[in-house]
Amino acid sequence: MKLAIFGATGKTGLELIKQALEQGHAVTAFVRDPARLTIEDDHLAVVTGDVFDPAAVDQAVQGQDAIICALGAGTELKKTTIRTTGTINIISSMQKNNVKRLMVVTAMGVGESWNTLSLFNKLFFATLLKSTRDDHETQETAVKESRLDWTIIRPSGLTDTPRTGVYAFGENIPAKTSKIARADVADLILKEVGQADLIGKAVTITN
Question: Does pLDDT of 183 surpass 90?
């Protein structure tokens, strides 16, 4: 498949690129700073731009089979709309260019999965991560209203541990350990991007 990945230089994005190339996909990485992209491959194209710029987003979306959105704000906890605004620009470009398949990474605790959180995690989200959660909430709303073939992936606590291929996923499932490897999140996304089973669903992934 021809895949465009947004949030490509984040930890999850880099894992997605690595695994997608290993599986033989043609990957377009959308980046703000190409110096942060350390992967080189004949099947990897790079589009440099800002996700707030619809014209730049358009360059990456055109001609793709599917879009994977793993936008984030790094370690910043201050208020941001990068996920919402960026995703809206991606959706608009997909609609214009007749690209239907969209996979979006948000977080466990967003939307209906709020009730699966422990009391501690609810307090954590409601205080320290309030801005992040607010951005994810409006991001998910845009995705659900897009009329695209969308799937939302909600990881529990992300770790940088190796891929195991062993994890639970489903709508509103509780977290077993509140942890999941980014590599396993990428594994699930790439298994499902070409399938129809999870279209129109928001699923939690956890160990």
Answer: yes
